[in-house]
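ugh finaly. both done.
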Amino acid sequence: MAAKSAAGLLTSVDSMFTTQEERDNAQRSYVIDLPAAEISDFPDHPFKVRMDESMMELADSVKQHGILVPSLVRPMPDGSYQMVSGHRRKRAAELAELPTVPCIVRELTDDEAIIIMVDSNLQREQVLPSEKAFAYKMKLDAMKRQGQRTDLTSNPLGRKLGGKESAEIVGKDGGDSQTQVRRFIRLTNLVPELLDMVDNSVLKEKDKLQMALRPAVELSYLSKDEQNALLEVMEGEDCTPSHAQAIKMREFSEKGKLNPDVILSIMQEEKPNQMEQFKIPRNRIDKFFPAGTPAQKIEDTIVKALEMYRKRERARER
């Protein structure tokens, strides 16, 4: 009798420290092992599953110890399952050739799934700007559909939601301020090639053009045609715009006066603290390099050839 009373007391205490939603979710969740092939990816999943060194290390760990933390999936009407959180673990299991993946199965609405998917993936060690951009946008849209007021606009001041700016709520798990969240969401308006350059600045891709976040945000206000025109100039000049240059292009665009000639003129302006550049017309050196050779590799090869030439000339003088 005492034991039964104690059990009732524990249940009562537990109810005091959990929400009804959490208790409902616990009742509709269960753990099973599923073949990876039976789990579809989350639609428009903004977080990339990269085949990098980190993935190889994860696959080796999974092969030795198995998957220690179950993935979260939701059942679909056709009887299949959809991944909510655990895309990297699923891929690691496939690489390790495991027959199944341990999964928590939970009934979730589309919007519930989006919010959980975004918040769980923002805990990754490295999240690219493009991933945050689309993830934050997805979460904000889901919150809107759930009936929450989320007045996120381009207005720098924004409006408040229960004492908090909606962008602050959206970016809480990613560790970003409301202003930074707005900047990331603006990136979704960039053409893919320009967005890749923002990611390259984080990945430190040596032979690829890189662009900082602030100028990229300014460029997001250009039309797609204007962005593509800029892209051609950037590739031809082998450089990306400074924040000041990007602001100037946005101003010309808003006045309807931005065209390829104006873009080229702005891009050729000398930037503060910029070292003097020596330029060789590309058509004079193309015959010495295979098509598609990165500009940085061409530069390194020319410098190396000049160093060899200087050594040979010095040897002749002796």
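ok and the 2nd:
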Amino acid sequence: MLKILVTGATGNVGQEVLSLLQSHDCNICAGVRNSNNAKHLLGNNIQCVPFDFTDPDTFDHAFFEVNKLFLVRPPALANIPTQVAPALNAAKLAGVEHIVFLSILGSKHNRFLPHSQIERYINQLGIKATFLRASFFMQNLNTTHREDIKVHSELLLPAGNGKTSFIDVRDIAAVAVRTLIEDGHQGRAYPLTGKASFSWCSRHWLRFVPLYASFGQL
């Protein structure tokens, strides 16, 4: 049976990926740093295995008999050669056949991004991969930016006149699961965005408010 290890399992995308994978005939493992906390969040139906990018002692058990890996870079880890590459080396040695990596829109053109460095390193290792280059998460508006919107009614970001496309993490997860379960996605990179782009100017946000109202009251 296909065995899939999901990293970033307690994050917003990882949880959705795990939820969708449960309807497929595969062995699912959630790679987590704290199994007790993860069980409380994910429930008892998800098998949790200890995994920490910065702890090589967790690699062998986490990657044991894993065929496919859903890879999410922890935001705090930016030094790819020392903090992420060792885990990828272990994945290759363990026989992982396919990595689906949650990357970021624009990584192809900005080689300094940690996501771009990870993409290149995976390619150097020779592991078959699919890169999901996602745009700004819709859910950031009622998590990371929730207080700014609620308290100050504004978002202060160095965006200038640039525009951003937003995407629901549930849509990212749906694509991720298809690339993990289906054949034919190896060696592909998919840009994942919403249907429209919005500037960060206040007059445009009046059109955008209804789109994220369903994610929770501000």
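summary for the 2nd one i guess: The longest strand covers residues 98-104.
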